[in-house]
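Aspartic proteinase, pasting as requested.
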Amino acid sequence: MISNEVYLVLFFALLPVCSGATATIPIKRTTIRFKFDDWQLYNEYAGAFQQPEAGHQHPLSRHDQSTFYHILYTTSIAIGNPPQPFTASIDLSWSDMFVPSVECLQDPVTAQYCRGQNKYNSSLSTTYHPSKTVTELMYEGLSTSGYLSQDVLGVGGLVILDQQFEEATFWRSMYLNAAPLDSALGLARLQSRTPASNASTKSALRNMLDQKVLSRPVFSLRLPRRDDESGELALGYSPLEVLAQSAVTLPLIEATPPKELSQLSYYISSGYTVALESVTIQSSPGNNPGGRKPSTYKAVFTNSFDYISLPGTLLTEIQTNLHPNLGMDDQLADLDCSMRDDLPNIVFSFGKNAVIVLTPWDYLTEVRDVEKGMRCVLPFAYLQQADDEWVVLGSAFMEGVYSVFDLEKGEVSLLMLKE
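Structure tokens follow.
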């Protein structure tokens, strides 16, 4: 019989290499392609936060386009002792952890959805602690319910004790085959506020900080721009080559989410908000669409949202001045990628000497469609908001920068990526 100590040694050996209280974790990018009918199913089973107001299109549908895309960023984690492996999405906005339970196979209806997933078996773990608090949540095309459990979490060789998670005995998926994820690795700085979950557990990041697992309360993200690239999540340190370069460093600001539960309030609640002065099209002086009325916005970082959400007026100014052949009806259109040569750069000004310039190679989301081949998706969208002050910098922005979140200093540093 193998002792628990030997199991823990194997635990470290099977996960990515780490040094001390730091870890470097590879990120895999997966493009999910939906048809419009699938989006209706997504709303039904994954939970629609809100319906668009009259006069506003839903940010994920276009009247003449039935195909759209969603990007997932995943990595490997393990729960239990000995470790049981799972694929988890990396999510800046999410808190609650969940995994399918072996008990999901007991119900014939649920079994057809969870059969292809990695499943947690509490009877095989020597560090399992039951809670039995009843939970339910909806996440990334999944609808689950079960009960809270507690066990050791392994992330990149780091060990987080007493991680609470939903052990899902009910598992419903909108995916035709096995879902491309079993869990979520939440990186929310604060407890995210979502109507899609009643678990209210600490995020994996929050537990790392509270247990002082990391050498420093800092992490960095380099999201892959294509499905054949690998990205990187660095926990507990910032790579030296990033620090040695000229990065834009911004203070995180406190932001109160709107009282109504919405997609926007969910992103805001995770705690990654900064001040943003303007979003403009890079052009010659005196001809600067999107920048005629300098203003101050609040910008929230997330990789849960695929796009860049702008206030209504700003969205119109940007969208209608991108190209003579593009207008408001082309929101979120997937274009031939050769159009990147004809589109302008977009300038995000966070303050004096704090500017990020994204080229079309940065802000257009590259996807490979089984019918159309390689396509590039326009990212500019609208999320309903009472006050036109919020900009959501989703993965279309995040893929174009290397981001470092220093939670000790309360700041985020952004470095423009180069091909």
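Note for the archive: The chain has a mean pLDDT of 84.
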